[in-house]
Amino acid sequence: MSLRKEITKFLTRDWWLKILALLLGFSLWFYVQLEDKVQFQREVPITNIPSEVKVYPKQVLVVGWIVEKLNKEKYLDKIHAVLLWDGKNKFARVEIVFPFPKFLVSIETVYPREVKVEKEN
């Protein structure tokens, strides 16, 4: 039997087991890559502030965990704080927004969770 036929026979015999092994190997590699998380701490400016109001403080401190591979400035800069204000109260809630799936980043604490809002005269 020729070498070409032997290779073809080897690759096509039990092909579904070979694909299953590749999928399991890839899944294990993916899990190991995402398992290591490191803690980060970052001051984030508040966005979505209406022009007719002032917010105190203008930044919040965000503490959380991120996958070690993403613990770089260019990724951490994508974390933002958004002002959620109904237009009536003196205080507004702050929500943290990030463009990553939740299994890559977890937010532990945001300080302060609410900020003071004052209308400008």
Keywords:
121 residues; alpha+beta; RNA Polymerase Alpha Subunit, Chain A, domain 2; 2 domains; 7-stranded mixed beta sheet; 3 helices; 29% helix; rod-shaped
Structural overview:
It is built from three helices and seven strands. The protein is α+β, with helices and mostly antiparallel strands. The protein has two domains: 30 residues; 84 residues, RNA Polymerase Alpha Subunit, Chain A, domain 2. A hairpin with a 6-residue loop joins strand 4 and strand 5. The longest helix has 21 residues. It starts with a helix and ends with a strand.
Spatial gap, N to C terminus = 91 Å
Gross morphology is: rod-shaped
Tell me the helix content: 25-40%
Query: Based on helices, strands and strand pairing, what is the structural class?
Result: alpha+beta
Report low-confidence residues grouped into runs of 5 or more.
Answer: none
Strand order of the largest sheet: 2-7-5-4-1-3-6
Mean pLDDT: 83
Number of helical stretches of at least 4 residues: 3
In the CATH scheme, the class of the largest domain would be: Mainly Beta
Assign the CATH topology of the largest domain.
RNA Polymerase Alpha Subunit, Chain A, domain 2
Query: How many domains comprise the coordinates?
Result: 2
- Sheet with most strands: 7 strands, mixed
Q: What fraction of the residues are assigned to beta strands by DSSP? A: 35-45%
Overall CATH architecture of the largest domain: Beta Complex
